[in-house]
Structure formats: structure tokens, C-alpha cells
Amino acid sequence: GAVVSQHPSRVICKSGTSVKIECRSLDFQATTMFWYRQFPKKSLMLMATSNEGSKATYEQGVEKDKFLINHASLTLSTLTVTSAHPEDSSFYICSATSGTPGATQYFGPGTRLLVL
Amino acid sequence: AQSVTQLGSHVSVSEGALVLLRCNYSSSVPPYLFWYVQYPNQGLQLLLKYTSAATLVKGINDFEAEFKKSETSFHLTKPSAHMSDAAEYFCAVSEGATNKLIFGTGTLLAVQP
Predict the structure, then answer these.
(1) Which of A4, A115, B109, B113 has the highest local Cβ count within 10 Å?
(2) Measured between beta carbons, which residues in chain B are less than 8 angstroms from residue A34?
(3) Per-10-residue mean pLDDT for chain B, 113 residues long?
(4) Which of B94, B76, B90, B86 is nearest to B33 (CA)?
(5) Cβ within 8 Å of B, A 35-64
(6) What Å distances lie between residue B71 and A50, B18, B22, B24, B106, CA to CA?
(7) CA dist A26 to A10, A74, A102, Å?
(8) How confident is the model at residue A111 (pLDDT cuts 50, 70, 90)?
(9) B65 or A74, which is more confident
């Protein structure tokens, strides 16, 4: 299957700082990327859908000014957690897809964020 | 609206025994259905995918799933469990043109020696 990478895999930051997470599709062009958040022992919660070259579509209840998403190219999307607080600590996972109906989403390995 | 129900948040089997993880879906249109596996502190790996080409779908690591429209089910099976199969398994349905995935709550599979 296709390969999706995320960087960093783990990050610790101080409260009030911003953190950027990168999601790259390594061997295919990802028209659409998704960002998820996963709490311990829970399923994935979709945060936003990111289409290349356009603004991200956020799910209800997700603050777009706090979770900035950029999808500037067909192989890279970034999620920036702005002014991070301890409650933002979580496992963030991205996925990438070609965008055709029913296309498989390929997931990155996730980024563990800890805000102190 | 589409939804997925996974019966059994925890399933425990003995090594070598049959694995059966249940998934029922709700969809007003022919669905795309997926099974993913997640190992601790990792992303999700695709096990298999139903796209209407065949009702019995074979995936990686000897997993397979059968699409049963009359039962709105897409249960995952494996004839003989290995210790390495211990992980969290997620069933998901794709939401039409947006390709959003609606996930079930997951089933944690434990394999006993």
C-alpha cells in the first residue's frame, strides 16, 4: 500500500507555544488529506478534511483558529496547534487519499503531542 | 446518515483459534467498507476493503470479510489467530464523494497462548 509519513512522531512543548505536524504522502499524489485526533482507548475523531489548494473543512466543534491546516501541495499537509494547552495533548493521525470515490485512506504513523 | 457498529469492544481468543470480529453498518447508498488494524502507538493499517466487486474480500495476513447486504454486516474473520494479531481493529464506512470515513468504536483483540 501507499506510504504516508508524519513528523515529528513525538513532541513535548510548553503551554502557550505552537506546534506544527507534517503529513506527507511519499509515493502518490494526495488530493485529499484528513486529520484525526485519538484519545486513549478511543476511536478516531475526524478533525478536518484538507483538499490541495483550498481551505480545510473542519468538523463541528473543532476550532479552526486553533488547529490551522495547510495543504499546499499534493504531497504535504500540515497541522499547526496554536497556543497549545495541556488539553490539546493527544495522538494526532493524518491520512491521505487520491480523492476518487471510495478511495482508500492511507494513514500516517501518528504524532504524540504532550503539552506541559 | 452512515454509521458503523462494532459489537464487542474486547475479544479474546486462543492462539490457533478462529477470529471473528463483528461489524454492522448503516448506509442509504451502496457502501465502501474497510477494516483497519492499529498496533499500540501506531497509525492504522488497511487490512481489506469492500468496493462491490466481490462479496468475500481477502486481505492481508489471512484476514477476510464477507459483505452481507441482507444483514448489513461486514464481519472480519481469520481461521487461525497468531499472537501477532493482538491489536485494535476498526471497521469503517466511507461517506460517499467526500471519502470521509465513519469509524466504529473499535475492537481490541487479545490472543492467549
Answers:
(1) A4
(2) 100-101
(3) 91 97 89 93 92 89 95 96 96 85 94 96
(4) B94
(5) 42-44, 46, 49
(6) 34, 21, 12, 8, 20
(7) 20, 10, 20
(8) very high
(9) B65
